[in-house]
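Appendix B, example 12.
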Amino acid sequence: MKDLILLFALAAAAGFTPQAIAARDAAADVTPVADVTFSMRTEISNGQLVFVGNAGAIKDVVNPELKVPEGAVVAITVTNGDGAMHDIAVPEFGAQSDQIVGQGSATTIVFRATKAGTFEYVCTIPGHRAAGMFGKLTVGDVEEVVSTAVDIAKNPSEVATPVGNRGPQTLTYDLVTTEVEGKLSDGSTYRYWTFNDTVPGPLLRIRTGDTVTINLKNAEDSVNIHSVDFHAVTGPGGGAAVTQVAPGQTKSFTFKALNPGLYVYHCATPMIAHHISNGMYGMILVEPEGGLPAVDKEFYIMQGELYTAQKHGSRGLQEFSVDKLLDERPEHLMFNGSMDALTKTYKMEADVGDTVRMYFGVGGPNLISSFHVIGEVFDRVFDQASLTSPPLTDVQTTLVAPGGATVVEFKVDYPGKYILVDHALSRAEKGLAGFLHVNGEADPTIFNTSETIDHSSGH
């Protein structure tokens, strides 16, 4: 009996009385009842990995917007519909699910939406956000802000007029440097610096022997001095030594095109790398005497980098980070100025049997590109954009230095969506991708399968 009394005494001292245990269980049950619930599944849709709503207002909606009151407890359940590994997270509220593998497996996150605003839900498995698995969570009565951001993405089909077999001419080009808030991606913007309001600036197209006048005007509402350095120019600073232009002013120079090739131009005002990264680059094509052979489709593409204080995927206006620039750690990489330029904004198309020519350059300012088109082989590569050297043939991937260029040509033999990448493929996770859509009849002697083609995959 004494032993039993002693046992109860020790239990009470340790907090193991029935009353203490009940109180502790109540305190430990901190998971509140959800005020708002959502149910979604994972799917592969139109070649992308996506979330799809299961019920209610979001039923069958791809990557639906989830709207909840401020302060609400939110539960989001995701069921695996495609068999791959997935999860779901709302990073802003510290909500992160377990990973689910296999069709029918499910997971749920529960969190309190403690502040109003627009946030992101996302699958955090590497590569899945880039493949399409993200959506918007709107908390509270968030007013839709009409953004003043402009679309700075350059249309890749704007390749100017081929020179043909004409003789040398005297030409004039007007370039205007502008500083504008432009669209970086859905939900994010950046204060770009541009030539003629696009990134890259216009493709100028001339021939060897032309005499060219460049008029560089700096917009009156600019804050910074700007200039232009043409790699095709033989002369002081490629023109930069005479075109340091204050806001509202114009400066000019004239040069003779001595060498054929595809050349980069860029701003050369200190800090030069800052001006280039912000979007101040473009190319000039100097065709050889007699011009280039005709092809069916031509495209103008440049690769660039943005160095922002905010991480890739952040919403709102992104701010420049000089530390990341000096450390060469870009948060965003893109073709033609924005994340969506060659995937959503502009559609590059060709037909089976067409010969495609791409004028490709790297604005940079820092990273070398390993340019590659997934599912194609370059029939001809004019290495380092030398148009008078014999082209390389049958090339899979070609290196292009910062401030350098190349010209690639290939015949498209099979329909489908071909993905343009830098084959340093981690960069695709930061926005570096484009699509070439090829239309036409499939030739089973070239490629044949009974499987469903997943256009989001590649190498």
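The chain has five helices and 29 strands. The chain has a mean pLDDT of 90.
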